[in-house]
Specification:
Blueprint: E1 2-3, E2 11-12, H1 20-47, H2 52-65, H3 81-100, H4 114-129, H5 132-151
Antiparallel strand pairs: 1-2
Helix pairs in contact: 1-2, 3-4, 3-5
Length: 157
């Protein structure tokens, strides 16, 4: 991975069958992500009258560590209905907890990047979803849903 001179976040990508247009789109998306992820921090630094060199150093550091990924997108695919329900229970618990503090899952708190916030949420979902009480409740809900579906009999749609 090499950087084009004078462009923060612009990459020259050599990955085989990637067209020049594909590379431009990826570079544009990456640049937009960097801008979006750093806008709050840069604004705060500007308000604090930090020097352009200090701001540039923060941007360069973040750029160097940036991982091109989709926030909140887990690489795991959950197919087990009990695990899926346990994760839903965990997510709802986190959502309610954050709401009490005036926060939300979708709004990245100040001082966090979208990626770090998504990772924290994902880790907390994993932790809560694996607790015995949550797994037991998930089993109960899945079983109740399966029972209700059985009571419906044949559906003619």
């Amino acid at each position: 991975m090499t950087h084009r001179p004078g462009l923060v976040g612009a990459l020259v990508i050599d990955v085989g069958p990637l067209t020049e247009a594909d590379a431009r789109v990826l570079n544009q998306t990456r640049s937009e992500n960097l801008r979006n992820n750093l806008a709050g921090q840069v604004k705060k630094m500007t308000e604090e009258q930090k020097s352009p060199d200090e701001i540039a150093a923060v941007v360069a550091e973040y750029d160097g560590k940036y991982n091109f990924s989709m926030p909140g997108a887990s690489t795991r695919i959950v197919r087990d209905p009990v695990e899926k329900e346990a994760r839903a229970i965990a997510r709802e618990a986190i959502k309610e907890h954050l709401k009490k503090g005036g926060k939300s899952l979708s709004k990245t708190p100040e001082g966090e990047t979208d990626e770090s916030w998504a990772e924290k949420i994902e880790n907390e979902i994993d932790r809560i979803a694996s607790q015995d009480g949550v797994v037991a409740e998930a089993r109960k809900r899945v079983k109740a849903r399966e029972k209700a579906q059985g009571l419906a009999g044949d559906i003619s749609l």
